[in-house]
Amino acid sequence: MNRRFLTASFLWLVAMLASANDGVFYVNGNQIVPLQETDVAVTKEVLTISIQDDGYATVDVLYEFTNRGAAKVVDVGFEASAPYNTGDMLDRTGKHPYIYDFTVEMNGAKLPIRNYVVHHSSEDEPTDFVPLDLNQWRDLEDSDEAISGIINKQTKENIDYSYAYCFKANFKEGKNVVHHTYRYMMSGGIYNHFGIPYWLLPAMRWANHQIDDFTLRIKAEKTAKQFCIVKDPMWSAAQWRLAEGTGKMHVVQSGYDVEYYEFSLRNGTYEWHAKNFRPTDDIHIDSAEGALFSREDFKLGRFYDRKAMILLPYEKMEDTDDGMLIPANGMTDGISNSRILRNLPYANRGYVFKDQKLAAYFKSLWWYMPDPQWNQDTSDFTEEERKWVNDYK
Description:
It contains five helices and 22 strands. By secondary structure, the protein is mainly beta. The strands form five sheets. Strands 1, 3, 4, 6, 7, 13, 14, 15, 16, 17 and 18 form an eleven-stranded mixed β-sheet that branches. It has a four-stranded antiparallel β-sheet with strand order 2-5-12-8, with no helix packed on it. It has a three-stranded antiparallel β-sheet with strand order 9-10-11, with no helix packed on it. A hairpin with a 2-residue loop joins strand 21 and strand 22 (335-336). It is globular and about 70 Å long.
């Protein structure tokens, strides 16, 4: 077995454990909101979140607004909360360090964006988007008692802050179409390989205090992803459906008695659609190992992601004489653990196993979706997977 690979894997695990209790938070996705009272309503929204293997999520939002009054100009804003536990300093340009390719088109015309920093308020007191005078604020230092945010140079007041992306929207009478796109880095932590937070509640600030016709689409682009969403009552208004590609879903209970929708999706899209949608909470899309963390039935391979390097339950790890953690050299269902591990990348792509023991084992993993048409092309194997296959021969 390759010692260099095992060392890298162990260091990856240590880094995740050392990333603080809440993990690393980079940025949230969000709705756009009016900065003043308006009679403009959200008639329709199609929100597409694409999960990718490069550590980023891509967001594409198509809005249809109805302006019930005369033509008007409305200041519109997008709030992105500051990173947490990343070591980043305040970016005084007002541009978030983990948001990229932020664009807005309205009725076919691209709109200019202005950026600034604002005081991040609570859900009970929405952010007012008043720009902070950054001459009066500084980053925290080791001597400061506060653990996050920025501090006022004179009053020593400590606040959390957000980055604002704002634009002027020229609403004509009747229907208006806004197309909004950006990429942002996915968060992560001790319990999950990736996390995608997205704020839904700000949509309630438009005139109708709901989204008349709402569609959420979650995509796995040119990859396979296993992820969970908390089974919040607001999702009971409609059924999740597989819109394209290969996928399956079920409800799973975590070791902490929280129910999740768990999805297994390969090169496809899951969709949720409802009328008169009034979100009662935000959404967090998490890689599935978080929901499985303390379950007793977390068997070898229960979670698999192409970009993660260690995907083993703790009971499948053993110490070596030099204190290194490696996969236990045991057997599971009559198959060596190393054989299961080296075949995980193939199972993830739908390989149909001829060996009866392997076939039975992977069929016992709920996410496994056999694809007789897969031609065993390994050109899309990630670097981590190639090491995985070579090291567990």
